[in-house]
C-alpha cells in the first residue's frame, strides 16, 4: 500500500475548502427557508390556510399529506 505525504498547507487548504462548501450549502438552505417562510406568510395573508384544533385533526391532516405525496411519487415513478 502506498502512502502519500501530506503537508500542513494541503491539510489547511482542504479544510478551508470544506468550510467554504459548508457555508455555501448553509446559505442555500437559509435562502430556501426564507422563501418558504415568505410563501407561508403570503398564503396566510390571502386567507389560504386551514385551522387544526386538535391532535387528531393534525394527525389526520399529516396522514392525508403523506398519502397524497405517496400517490404523487408512485405516479412519477410509473411515468419514469
Unreliable stretches covering 5 or more consecutive residues: none
- Give the tally of structural domains: 2
Radius of gyration, rounded? Answer: 23 Å
Number of helices: 2
Largest sheet: none
Q: Helices and strands: which structural class?
A: mainly alpha
Strand content: under 5%
Residue share in helices?
over 70%
Q: What is this structure's SSE topology?
A:
Layout: H1 8-46, H2 55-79
Would you kindly provide a written description of the structure presented here, covering whatever features stand out?
The chain folds into two domains: 1-49; 50-80. The protein is built from two helices and no strands. It has helices at 8-46, 55-79. 0% of the residues are buried. The model has no long low-confidence stretch (mean pLDDT 93).
Key descriptive features of the protein:
80 residues, mainly alpha, 2 domains, 2 helices, 0% strand
Short description:
By secondary structure, the chain is mainly α. It has 2 domains: 1-49; 50-80. The protein has helices at 8-46, 55-79.
Amino acid at each position: 500500500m502506498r502512502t502519500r505525504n501530506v503537508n500542513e498547507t494541503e491539510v489547511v487548504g482542504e479544510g478551508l475548502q470544506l468550510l467554504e462548501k459548508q457555508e455555501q450549502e448553509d446559505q442555500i438552505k437559509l435562502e430556501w427557508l426564507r422563501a418558504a417562510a415568505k410563501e407561508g406568510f403570503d398564503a396566510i395573508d390571502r386567507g389560504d390556510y386551514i385551522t387544526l384544533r386538535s391532535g387528531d385533526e393534525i394527525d389526520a391532516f399529516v396522514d392525508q399529506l403523506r398519502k397524497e405525496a405517496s400517490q404523487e411519487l408512485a405516479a412519477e415513478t410509473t411515468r419514469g
